[in-house]
Amino acid sequence: MSTTDEGRERKSQRRLTLSFLVCMVGPLVVGVILNALVRPGIATALGGERHSHSSGVRSQDTWWSFDADTVRQHPVLTGFLEASDGLIAVWTLAVTAVILLLRWLIVVRMTRSRRA
């Protein structure tokens, strides 16, 4: 194998590693930002009432409720905010799993096409 082939192979491996990290960390970062910043900000702006349920030392599930007028005016936002933080976290993990599965399928197909 020549030096340029080795360089291409290393670059390809780096790209695969980077894509794995993006697939793994990206959705988790989005989920944390949603639960920590975006949802509380929107709920405050809409005048929502915060509810929390603590099931242990570390975990606290939070959601908001709204009056009927606000729900009528902003049905999508209030529906999103009435879901608990835990549900958002579960959806984030599910999206991460689906993205990683799709990435794996793409890598397998790319590897097979290179061998053929």
From TrEMBL:
The chain crosses the membrane at residues 16-38, 86-106. Keywords: Membrane, Transmembrane, Transmembrane helix. The keyword Transmembrane applies. The keyword Transmembrane applies. This is Uncharacterized protein. It comes from Mycetocola lacteus. The lineage of its organism: Bacteria, Bacillati, Actinomycetota, Actinomycetes, Micrococcales.
